[in-house]
Amino acid sequence: MANKQIVSPLPGTFYRRPTPDTPPFKAEGDSIAAGDTIGLVEVMKSFHAIHAQFGGRIVKFLIDNEEPIMAGQPIADVEG
User: Fold this and answer.
1) Chain segment 21-66, per-residue pLDDT in tens
2) What ranges in the chain are assigned the alpha helix state H?
3) What is the pLDDT of residues 33-45, one digit of tens each?
4) End-to-end CA distance of the chain
5) Whole-angstrom Cα distance, residue 40 to residue 48?
6) For residues 47 and 20, what is the distance between their CA atoms, to the nearest angstrom?
């Protein structure tokens, strides 16, 4: 199976969970479908959902929660 990467469409701060006291949208090993939300990017106090562009299984997140991210930077490796 080929690995693909989900990349950030915009710069900001990446969040893996919707609020600090809720579980992450997705974890490593989770299956995803096209359109699933895998995280949020906050830009100037505005939160933008990051959606999977394709289906598969998340092999590894390449960026930590609350870490700065650049546009085009890979967020996760996806198998499938």
Assistant:
1) 999 999 999 999 999 999 999 999 999 999 999 999 999 999 999 9
2) none
3) 999 999 999 999 9
4) 5
5) 5
6) 14
Amino acid making up residue 50: I
Helix (H, G, I), strand (E, B) or coil at 69: strand
Q: Residue 28 and residue 70: Cα distance in Å, rounded?
A: 21
Give the CA distances from residue 21 to residues 18, 24, 74, in Å, rounded to whole numbers and listed in that order.
Answer: 8, 9, 25
Structure tokens belonging to residue 28: 């490593």
Number of Cα atoms under 13 Å in the Cβ half of residue 74: 11
Structure tokens that stand for 48 in this block: 């933008």
Dihedral, 45, 28, 79, 35 alpha carbons, nearest 10: -40
CB atoms under 10 Å from CB of 69, counted, come to 23
